[in-house]
Predict the 3D structure of the following.
Amino acid sequence: MDHTGEERKVSHPRTLKEKEQIINRLKRIEGQVRGIQNMVETDRYCTDILIQISAINAALKKVSLNLLERHTHHCVVDAIKSGNEAEAIEELMGVFERFTKS
């Protein structure tokens, strides 16, 4: 879905290998989050928990950048080739804006 809640069609569907890689990374992140929940439940030292949160943030950033790179190389390039460059660039800049917000 886009920022308006409208579902968009993928111009270049992900390959099975790409899907597996993303899903595996997200499953690892999910496991890390569960680990943090356990750390909180067992009263682990705050710094240990914060280090794990930092690792999750880095892992999510890596997944996001991977998706952004693929989107740029495929979806944005296709949009530009089909004459929708202004819309594609506007959308891409919106994504960058979200990435840079703290």
Observations:
- The chain has one domain: 16-100.
- The chain has a mean pLDDT of 88.
